[in-house]
Amino acid sequence: MSQTLTISDQLHTELEAAARARGFDSIERLLEYYRANDEELRRRQEAVHRIDEIRHRIYDIHGEMPDSVDLIRDDRGR
């Protein structure tokens, strides 16, 4: 199903230029690209949120963990 959207000539010109600059043959492809990027950004933000929750749970259980840099250096030195 197709929809018609009325936008200003100026905005249409800017969108066409943005599409061409990114190698797309139409504004529709540009909008699909933006939608895909928006979904990817949302997935990444959700992943970061889950990582933060896990980090907080580990901190609540174990407290602050010591820095392992010195242990790694000692291990490499052997």
Terminal Cα span? 67 Å
- C-alpha geometry: elongated
Helix content: over 70%
What is the H/E order? Answer: HHH
The Rg value, from CA coordinates, equals 24 Å
Number of strands: 0
Q: Which structural class matches the secondary elements?
A: mainly alpha
Stretches where pLDDT falls below 50 for ≥5 residues? none
Q: What proportion strand?
A: under 5%
Structure description:
- With 78 residues, the protein is mostly helical.
- The chain has a domain at 29-64.
- It is built from three helices and no strands.
Short descriptors:
78 residues; 3 helices; mainly alpha
Question: How is the secondary structure organized here?
Answer:
Blueprint: H1 9-21, H2 27-62, H3 69-77
Summary?
The protein has 78 residues and is an all-alpha fold.
